[in-house]
Amino acid sequence: xxxxxxxxxxxxxxxxxxxxxxxxxxxxxxxxxxxxxxxxxxxxxxxxxxxxxxxxxxxxxxxxxxxxxxxxxxxxxxxxxxxxxxxxxxxxxxxxxxxxxxxxxxxxxxxxxxxxxxxxxxxxxxxxxxxxxxxxxxxxxxxxxxxxxxxxxxxxxxxxxxxxxxxxxxxxxxxxxxxxxxxxxxxxxxxxx
Length: 193
Description:
Elements: E1 4-9, H1 20-30, E2 34-36, H2 48-60, E3 67-73, H3 75-86, E4 92-98, H4 120-126, E5 127-135, H5 143-150, E6 156-159, H6 175-186
Parallel strand pairs: 1-2, 1-3, 3-4, 4-5, 5-6
Helix pairs in contact: 3-4
């Protein structure tokens, strides 16, 4: 039987107890999956280089024989893109990048994450499959700016009016993300919508 580990990567400000990432981590643990859900340093004023080191340390804790599924939110998606630019081998089986911020608008509290190393090659090298999830009214990434990600020609899900897909937009318990995770594991399939 294939064993899986889920690595859940938060964004700016962390996720907190009410966020879908925390709900997802707890739910996946109840299904007896290995879940790694780190809290990165100074999450209100992050430093990209520090977070990259912490991400590497986090990934090193995952059993080598496990298939890794990475789930990011917001700035965590930019962190993953920086990590992908620095690593030249496959780490993950699947990656879901939820609501990555616009690569064209610098977030003042996270300046060190810009510019974003936009590269399809990096993402396909580090993971077998990558899925983007965007919302049509995300205040941190307009649909026009989301084209930077669509240009990768990787699978995407576009949700109508889901805001930044966080607690403020009503995403504490988020069944869609759990459903996607369970499909990847139970059917051992890629998620392509």
